Amino acid sequence: MERFQAQRDAFSGATENGPTRNLILMTVDDLDVEAQVDSPTLGTPQASTELQPLTPAPLDDTQTTAITGLNPPTAPNAENAPQIASANAPVATYGKLAEELQVNLFINFAFDSAAIGADQTQILDEMCVVMRDSDIKVFQIVGHTDSAGSDAYNERLSRLRAEEVGRYLTASCGIQSNRLTTLGLGERFPHNTENTRADENRRVEFQALS
Predict the structure, then answer these.
(1) 118, burial (CB in 10 Å: exposed 0-12, middle 13-18, buried 19+)
(2) What is the rounded CA–CA span in Å between residue 199 and residue 210?
(3) What phi and psi values does residue 11 have, to the nearest 5 degrees?
């Protein structure tokens, strides 16, 4: 919770005063933003079919961040899961946070897939409780990959995974859809810069925007 509050302060300071020690706002001007907004149905990778398809609305900790000692929330009917807005600005903006402020979940997605396995839900349930009980207004969920595969493929896969995490959060503990945005950045910002193919680069980052 304290880290999310520090993130929010950093985003607020960078918006008002420009880059700070803890945050640099970066324009990703060559990102395929149109694809991120339209969220088309793809052959591979496939997102889970257990949740409703996403229809957008207009608009690095070195270890997994998890809160222990909390009971996972009871999941409502996934068919009634609200829709989540994808980042839809003409040019995408990513806040590169200082490592000590990053919140990364290292979810073990299956190869070539955005589906969330049953053995990966506990960490999301714990995060869900923290987000639901916080006073953060908007979270951005950012998907990252390693450097295996093409740039276009990794960008698309990271976007699908970020969207699937967002859908899980709304379906599992009632996070309001207007509190979430999603963005896929592929291999652009590796957690391990010395080995861009390392497993820890495949992650989902959470940012408290406001």
Answers:
(1) exposed
(2) 30
(3) -65, -40
